[in-house]
Amino acid sequence: MGPVSLLTTTSQRPIYAGNSHKHVFPIRSITGTRHAAVTDRVLATVLFTDIVGFSAMARDNEARSLELLAEHAAILRPIFIAFDGIEIKTIGDAFLVEFASAVAAAECAIEIQTTFHNRNENCGVNRRLELRIGLHLGDIVRTESDVLGDGVN
């Protein structure tokens, strides 16, 4: 997506640009001037992952949990790419990934679970990583650095 266009608005309601898939949402800047950022609305599948029990793991052994977190990311990122997923963001032990295809997202989730199942069979109990995965299909609104909307929730 190109640079964000800024438009002045005095309305509290969203202003819709010429394309029905481009929406303009009011934003108040630091100076108090109202601007609006143009965004894209698309149908997409989003995949969420997080590690089961990661907070307790980090509390019990921070060094090990950070090592496992790095391993977790190193395993997941190539799988996302293999299924044409676009990593939107990661927060702690969680990933948010966008897919144009619901089938690709489901196949990616299966590959992740299979990979971690096989990994966990070959490591000690204190190094196992169990992942939760959620898939959502719906309209999402893309901003410059995030995705929002009912399809994300």
Walk me through the structure:
This protein is α+β, with helices and mostly antiparallel strands and 153 residues long. 31% of the residues lie in helices and 37% in strands. The protein contains 3 helices and 8 strands, in the order E-E-E-E-H-H-E-E-H-E-E. The chain has helices at 54-60, 62-82, 102-121, and strands spanning 6-8, 15-16, 22-28, 34-51, 86-91, 94-99, 131-142, 147-148. Strands 1, 2, 3, 4, 5, 6, 7 and 8 form an 8-stranded antiparallel beta sheet that branches. Strand 5 (86-91) and strand 6 form a beta hairpin. The longest helix has 21 residues, at 62-82. The radius of gyration is 19 Å and the shape is globular. The model is unreliable at 1-31 (pLDDT under 50).
Brief overview, please?
The protein is of the alpha+beta class and 153 residues long. It has three helices and eight strands, in the order E-E-E-E-H-H-E-E-H-E-E.
List the helices and strands and how they pair.
Layout: E1 6-8, E2 15-16, E3 22-28, E4 34-51, H1 54-60, H2 62-82, E5 86-91, E6 94-99, H3 102-121, E7 131-142, E8 147-148
Antiparallel strand pairs: 1-4, 2-3, 3-4, 4-6, 4-7, 5-6, 7-8
Helix pairs in contact: 1-2, 2-3
Oligomerization: single chain
Count of alpha/pi helices: 3
- SS class: alpha+beta
Based on CA atoms alone, the radius of gyration comes out at 19 Å
Largest sheet: 8 strands, antiparallel
Q: Give the ordered list of helices and strands.
A: EEEEHHEEHEE
Instruction: Give the DSSP E fraction (strand runs of 2 or more residues).
Output: 35-45%
Distance between the termini: 22 Å
Query: Unreliable segments (pLDDT under 50, ≥5 consecutive)?
Result: 1-31
| Principal-axis shape | globular
Mean pLDDT: 78
What is the number of beta strands? Answer: 8
- Helix percent reads 25-40%
